[in-house]
Design a protein that fits this description.
mainly alpha; 144 residues; rod-shaped
């Protein structure tokens, strides 16, 4: 698969993902405390994972040009300059590949966390419903 086709596929996937749900207003911040609370939802976790994949894809699209250092190779430049330029280009390429791999790895871990979060959230809802059905009592409205 060509890079352009893969990039188009990633962009389509990121655009088709549902927008993160707005965070519900839970507890107000105490005086002098933080401005808000952290609320995570499965959709916000997946949305952030998609953003990390998009960042990795953008970095890959703008990857360093391997021919950029050819102007500094011998005989166009001194042999020492050519050797140092080649050494720097290899280092930069290694760092670039590590960065792209890091973003892709973080996105994968975040997707896994989102799947686990959805499972835990589902288990919590099922446990609450089971407890309500097992121990709940119907009270007619006129008796409240």
């Amino acid at each position: 698969m060509s890079f352009d086709a893969e990039w188009a596929q990633h962009k389509a996937l990121a655009r088709s993902a549902p927008a993160p749900a707005p965070a519900p207003a839970t507890n107000p911040a105490p005086a002098g405390g933080p401005a808000g609370t952290l609320v995570a939802t499965a959709s916000s976790i997946n949305g952030n994972a998609n953003l990390l994949i998009e960042i990795a894809a953008l970095l890959h699209e703008g990857r360093p040009d391997g021919e950029a250092s050819t102007m500094a190779r011998a005989p166009r430049a001194h042999a020492d300059v050519a050797a140092q330029t080649l050494r720097f280009a290899a280092f930069a390429d290694d760092q670039f590949k590590d960065t792209v791999a890091l973003f892709a790895g973080l996105a994968t871990r975040l997707k896994t966390a989102g799947t686990s979060f959805a499972g835990v959230d589902d288990d919590t809802a099922r446990a609450f419903l089971a407890g309500l059905l097992a121990a709940g009592q119907y009270v007619p409205p006129e008796c409240k």
